[in-house]
Amino acid sequence: MGSVSKVKVGEVVAEIEEVIDEHGDYLLRVAYLYVKNRATAEDIVQEVFIAFYEKQGQYRGEASLRTYLVKMTVNRSHDFLRSWKNKRITLFEKVTGKSTNRTPERSLLEKAEKQELVEALFTLSITYREVLILYYFQEMTTVEIAELLDCPQATIRTRLQRARKQLANRIVDYEWEELRHESI
């Protein structure tokens, strides 16, 4: 029985490898179109293939395998774009103007910069701080925030825009203060 299960596992692995070889590059391009980051797109495609392997029995063949995998990729990409992690990265990149492509050195710098971001966030008025926190950290939409705060959605969008701008200015001020103190 052990050799029979090894044969079945070998066949499944071969099938999965064939699916990856046939569709992997295409799915990577699809994911990249959504997330605009190669490493993230690779992670999404890897998750798609793992999910496909785990739920192989759910594929009913109503659409082509490529269509099925593309739909999974699009759904995972949407999930990522709605995720808290992505919103934090997006806020960090918008405020600092820096990409989060990671190297070990970059990771250490980012940790310090994120601490500065949090400190700068708490210097904002509560009006601006709350919309940033609700949008980026609580993952609420502008519609949900407007309902919660009982104000128009346009007001929330304006507050978000102004909050980002103020936050960016405060981070620039912090960097300037650090440079000024270092030269003394």
TrEMBL record:
Residues 20-83 form the RNA polymerase sigma-70 region domain. Residues 115-167 form the RNA polymerase sigma factor 70 region 4 type domain. GO terms for molecular function: DNA binding; sigma factor activity. GO terms for biological process: DNA-templated transcription initiation. InterPro entries: RNA_pol_sigma-70-like, RNA_pol_sigma-70_dom, RNA_pol_sigma70_r2, RNA_pol_sigma70_r4_t2, RNA_pol_sigma_r2, RNA_pol_sigma_r3/r4-like, WH-like_DNA-bd_sf. Keywords: Sigma factor, Transcription, Transcription regulation. PANTHER family: RNA POLYMERASE ECF-TYPE SIGMA FACTO, RNA POLYMERASE SIGMA FACTOR SIGV. Belongs to the sigma-70 factor family. ECF subfamily. This is ECF RNA polymerase sigma factor SigW. It comes from Filibacter tadaridae. The gene is sigW_5.
